[in-house]
Amino acid sequence: MKTMKKLGLLLLITIITTACSSNDEEPDTTKPTITVQYQGGFPQSCDVLEKGNEYILKLKVADNISVEKYAVDIHHNFDHHTHDDQGAQCELDPIKTPINAFLYRESFTISNSPKEYEINQKINIPNDVDSGDYHCSISVIDGTGWQSRTSIDIKIQ
Questions:
Q1: Are strands 147-156 and 67-76 parallel, antiparallel or unpaired?
Q2: Does the domain spanning 30-156 belong to CATH 2.60.40.2550?
């Protein structure tokens, strides 16, 4: 019986000291940033991409701790939905039904967990895709799981 009381007391002391231990690290509450508006940043709002050409997306991402992953999503905007946050209002073509809309969705891991990184991602626009309004959406995830997104209105001709 004395052994059980000693084990119980030891367990209680362990729980109390573990629960009361201090953690000097502040939790990360900062989302990563995505910058498009800089010399060489591409695409910019309302840019026209030509079918059959290769382009290099160039955007800067940064975080106070680390940037770990990013994703690129290019999809049609033939229905005029919106999530553009990069500035200019582009003149939209009439609403239409897609026949062979361009769709690009890829995720990438950023090596070595840097605090700053410039995305340089090749994108090929096939000759046979529908012309019209598109969105180029970028998302980035930092080392603690925070995510930021931005979307840019573009055209494919």
A1: unpaired
A2: yes
In angstroms, the CA 114 to CA 34 distance is 14
Q: What is the pLDDT of residues 4-26, one digit of tens each?
A: 555 555 555 555 555 554 556 78
The separation between CA 143 and the C-alpha centre of its own chain, rounded to angstroms, equals 13
Contacts (Cβ under 8 Å, ≥6 apart) of 88: 45, 46, 153
Q: What is the pTM of this model?
A: 0.82
Whose CA is closest to 34, among 71, 72, 60, 67? 60
* Domain ranges (residues) in the chain: 30-156
HEC secondary structure over 2-56 = HHHHHHHHHHHHHHHHHHCCCCCCCCCCCCCEEECCCCCCECCCCCEECCCCEEE
Which residue matches tokens 């000693």? Answer: 6
